[in-house]
Write a structure and sequence with these properties.
This protein is of the alpha+beta class and 486 residues long. It contains ten helices and twelve strands. The strands form three sheets. The chain has a five-stranded antiparallel β-sheet with strand order 2-1-5-4-3, sandwiched between helices. Strands 7-9-10-12-11 form a five-stranded mixed β-sheet, covered by helices on one side. The chain binds adenosine-5'-diphosphate.
């Protein structure tokens, strides 16, 4: 049950609400109690004022030793209230007069002596002119007020006690009200909270069940976005954009698989056909067998090349192609590559020139850079007609090496230029295949671009028109040893 967000939300909500209500009730109760006490104190103070005024007036009319007692009796009769007790004590602490026993109902100590708490209050009152306090007695105790006054040159203390019964009853009523209002409020709020949580989470439940139904077959389906500005709308949008990315990568993957199998099918078909022809003829000359074997070898080489390229790209995609970084000279590597490609160029009577460059130390993966340079040289020679020219330059104009390979081939049509780095893309399928002696399947530039990017550089087609093309690789001088091909 606790696994449900709805239930957890409701429980949290209920717990917080209970805490808030209880704290609120306690605060309200204590404020109520304090203000009641304050009102009582004001009342007692005013009552003492009125009592002493009456006492003063009456004392003037009386004479003799008991004049104060008689005047007090009159004042008591005039100010007698149900819940109040008046008493006057002389300086020695002896009671001069009182409206009733002090404190009332002194059953506990036999009815003659004041209760200990009253005595304590009386003793304390001798030390100040006015004193408020609490005195035990009766059912709910008393609020006591003591005030010093003088009459006929003698000091007395007037004590007024007010029963706290009414206040207690009122506070009990307040507490009782809280006692039933709070549980009802909590129950109602919890039920409401549960339904609110259910209603708010309903779209999430709907989303999750819809998301659960989305698979490879219906990857194009998207979650409905009710309100794109609220949190659920944003969640649905994030989920939809995740689906977008997933379906794009799924499509890319499918296209890659389809293109790859298409590319592999041709050499395999040639291999099979050639083998079948060779086997079907009983008597064949050695020359004919040799020719067949040459075709088989050429196609097998082509197959190997494609499979290797595919493997490289797959590992690069998965971020599993760690760079083997080391220090070497880029100009030397370019020289070696130009030297290797020279035979190819000679066969097509293409002049291959490497322009002088200064020392170019670099920290990079030598074999990957070799592969990139050879790919570019291979393309330049492949797509340049006989008698043409291929020029290689390598400079360091700023913080990165600029390696350019320029040919005098027919160039790439402007509308196809943006696509030449795509996998399996060939600007002129027919021409590429025909002139492609066991070569690539439109993967060379993709791999070359990945190699440049893996070195935090880039590879661009900087120029291509009817006079030829220039491919330029920009390579930083050094990579940190932690860099990988991912
Ligand atoms: P391929 O194996 O077909 O050479 P690449 O990825 O190396 O594959 O090149 C993709 C396409 O770009 C080629 O098929 C070709 O049409 C075009 N291309 C690449 N380099 C050149 C170049 N130097 N001159 C003209 N076209 C080129």
């Amino acid at each position: 049950m606790l696994d449900s967000v709805r239930v957890r939300l409701t429980l949290w909500y209920t717990a917080v609400l209970t805490f808030v209500l209880v704290v609120l009730a306690l605060i309200t109760y204590s404020i109520f109690w304090r203000s009641t006490l304050q009102r009582t104190d004001v009342n007692l103070s005013e009552l003492s004022e009125a009592f002493l005024t009456t006492l003063d007036a009456e004392a003037k009319d009386q004479s003799g030793p008991d004049s104060l007692k008689q005047a007090a009796q009159v004042a008591i009769n005039e100010h007698r209230f149900r819940d109040h007790v008046f008493a006057i004590f002389d300086d020695a602490g002896n009671m001069v007069v009182s409206s009733q026993d002090v404190p009332p109902e002194p059953a506990a100590n036999g009815g003659s002596l004041p209760s200990p708490s009253f005595q304590r209050f009386l003793d304390a009152s001798a030390r100040s002119d006015r004193l408020f306090g609490k005195v035990k007695g009766g059912k709910d105790g008393y609020r006591a007020f003591a005030r010093r006054f003088s009459s006929s040159g003698k000091k007395y203390t007037l004590v007024i006690l007010q029963s706290l019964h009414a206040q207690r009853e009122m506070l009990e009523e307040v507490a009782e009200t809280f006692a039933w209002v709070i549980p009802i409020a909590i129950v109602l709020a919890s039920v409401g909270g549960y339904f609110l949580a259910r209603k708010s989470l309903a779209p999430v439940v709907a989303m999750s069940s819809h998301a659960g139904r989305i698979g490879a077959a219906n990857l194009h389906e998207r979650l409905a976005v009710q309100n794109e500005r609220d949190e659920l709308g944003q969640l649905a949008q994030s989920f939809n954009s995740l689906l977008d990315r997933l379906s794009q990568s799924f499509e890319r993957q499918q296209r890659f698989m389809a293109d790859a199998s298409h590319e592999l099918r041709t050499p395999v078909a040639i291999l099979r056909g050639e083998a079948e022809v060779a086997l079907s003829q009983q008597a064949r000359s050695q020359e004919e067998y040799r020719e067949s074997l040459e075709v088989l070898h050429q196609e097998a080489a082509r197959l190997t090349h494609i499979v290797e390229d595919l493997f490289t790209l797959t590992r690069a995609d998965a971020g599993q192609y760690p760079l083997q970084l080391r220090d070497f000279y880029l100009d030397e590597l370019v020289g070696e590559c130009v030297h290797s490609a020279r035979t190819l160029a000679l066969a097509k009577k293409i002049s291959l020139n490497l322009e002088e460059s200064c020392e170019s130390p670099i920290h990079a993966d030598e074999s990957l850079l070799r592969r990139m340079i050879l790919n570019l040289l291979d393309n330049a020679i492949k797509y340049t007609p006989e008698g043409g020219r291929v020029t290689v330059t390598c400079n360091l104009p700023g913080h990165e090496y600029v390696l350019s390979i320029t040919d005098t081939g027919g160039g790439i049509p402007a509308e196809l230029q943006p696509r030449i780095f795509e996998r399996f893309f060939r600007a002129d399928m027919a021409r590429s295949r025909a002139e492609n002696d066991g070569g690539g399947a439109g993967l060379g530039l993709s791999i070359s671009r990945w190699i440049a990017e893996a070195h935090h550089g880039r590879l661009e087609l900087t120029r291509s028109d009817s006079a030829g093309s220039t491919f330029t690789a920009y390579l930083p001088t050094g990579l940190s040893p932690s860099a990988t091909g991912s």
